[in-house]
Design goal:
Layout (H helix, E strand, L loop, with lengths): L1 H16 L6 E5 L11 E7 L17 E7 L2 E7 L10 H4 L1 H9 L3 E10 L9 E9 L26 H13 L4 E8 L8 H10 L3 E3 L3 H9 L3 E11 L10 H26 L4
Parallel strand pairs: 1-4, 1-5, 5-9, 6-7, 7-8
Antiparallel strand pairs: 2-3, 3-4, 5-8, 6-9
């Protein structure tokens, strides 16, 4: 129950600052934090202000909650996430998503930067996550917190079919080529070897990254509807002669920003019920 107490303490702190109840929660991945500038902001709360709360340590992850509206839809946005490879437990990694649900959000938009495994993908593509393969520990290991969800939650539709359909509709409206595929979550922080990438391709993965699946598992555990959008920032190891780097991830994310921002905005407006 230690993590549940941390959640309650964090929520109590948030409620000293605002009574804001979001409709949609958003997690912004590596290099994608610029979307926060699109929000009609009401309040910003750094993770560091929350008692005993994990703090982002990775470049491209600023580390604060943004409360506000997108075309009238009330949102809370994580500008930067925390990762297992930073030394946090998986339970700590998903604390921010759990907190946003406790604030009132019942829909979750997850975003990330990923490496393309599918040979048809190119750097700068946007991929709608249809399912995932989680190669990292489950955030649900340990004593179940019954107040949050059941001991054995179903994961047959972890990424909501309804929200995926809305994402495809938004992409068509904006004339954005939205690919679809399976995302594999690895622990990192090292990039994958060429042999690992070949293995993941055989398993059915289309893109790889170091986040997202654990958050989706926690969200599903709590009954949230989830949709995921991945920015393919590079081809994965062994698929090109270019060495992989975090700088490349951020560069491609910056280049892809206009269509990414447009799609996420349209998606939020649609799932927030104000088309």
């Amino acid at each position: 129950m230690a993590d549940y107490n941390r959640l309650k303490n964090a929520l109590d702190y948030i409620r000293t600052k605002t009574d804001f109840v979001p409709e949609v929660a958003v997690v912004l991945g590596s290099g994608l934090g610029g979307f926060a500038d699109e929000i009609d902001t009401e309040l910003i709360v750094p993770y560091s202000d929350l008692p005993d709360f994990p703090i982002s340590t990775v470049p491209g992850h600023s580390g604060y909650f943004v409360f506000g509206k997108i075309n009238g839809v009330k949102v809370v946005v994580m500008k930067g996430r925390v990762h297992y490879y930073e030394g946090y437990t998986m339970e700590e990694v998903v604390l921010p998503v759990r907190l946003m649900h406790m604030m009132g959000a019942d829909k979750l938009v997850l975003t990330n930067a990923s490496g393309g495994i599918n040979w048809q993908f190119r750097a700068g593509d946007l991929m709608l996550i249809t399912d995932h393969i989680c190669m990292a520990p489950s955030p649900l290991i340990g004593k179940n917190i019954d107040e949050l969800g059941p001991r054995f939650p179903d994961m047959s539709e972890i990424y909501s079919r309804d929200l995926r359909d809305k994402a495809k509709t938004a992409a068509r409206k904006l004339d954005i080529d939205l690919r679809e595929g399976v995302y594999v979550h690895v622990t990192g922080p090292q990039y994958e070897t060429p042999s690992e990438i070949r293995m993941y391709r055989i398993l059915g993965a289309d893109a790889v990254g170091m986040s997202t699946a654990a958050e989706a598992i926690a969200a599903r555990h709590m009954g949230m509807q989830t949709v995921g959008i991945s920015v393919v920032s590079n081809l994965a190891s062994g698929m090109s002669l270019t060495p992989l780097s975090h700088e490349e991830v951020q560069t491609i994310a910056d280049r892809t920003a206009p269509k990414f921002k447009a799609l996420i905005r349209e998606l939020i407006v649609t799932i927030g019920g104000q088309a």
